[in-house]
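Below is one record:
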Amino acid sequence: MRGARRPEVRLPPLEPWSEGELAPDGDYDGLEFRECDLAGQDGAGARFMDCALTGCAVDGTALGRARVLDSVLTGLRGVGTRLAEATLRDVELVDARLGGTQLHGAVLERVVIRGGKIDYLNLREARLKDVVFESCVLVEPDFAGARLERVEFTDCALKGADFGGASLTDVDLRGAAPLEITRGLDRLSGAVISTGQLLDLAPVLAAAMGIRVM
């Protein structure tokens, strides 16, 4: 089992962002977005490099195909943020309160998601490499068809997860409590779980295999 490599984000001195609204294919370098209302704005295809986003509202923000690099995102809140096919590399996402975030087809590499709660996270067909979910709550996350390599769940609640069609390599689920998997138990080859988790999953495993326990 190879552990995930964590990002080492060292932000330079930042300039406050004051442009008013995001722009499609915009280029944002060395900027601080603090308490900004980005709800409903269109930043599709934009690049964020060495940026800090703190306390921003991202309800329905369009960031499909965006690239977020060497950045720290703290206290983001919003529903329906659109990040399909985006790239997040060397990123820390801290204390987020998000719902229905669309990251299908996205690429996440050296990303830490620490604290907070994310409901209905859509990571279908995404690629996750060196990703850590730490001290957070994930409600009904969708990993269907995703590829996970060196992914760790540490002190993390994983409720109603879907791993249908996913590919797992060096995925450490031992720190997930509870560990609730509704689909894709047959795709857990390449993951490691604890003995206690195996016992907790036994009824679901038995049902999936057609075994009656009497």
In short: The two ends are 36 Å apart (CA to CA). The helical segments are 195-208.
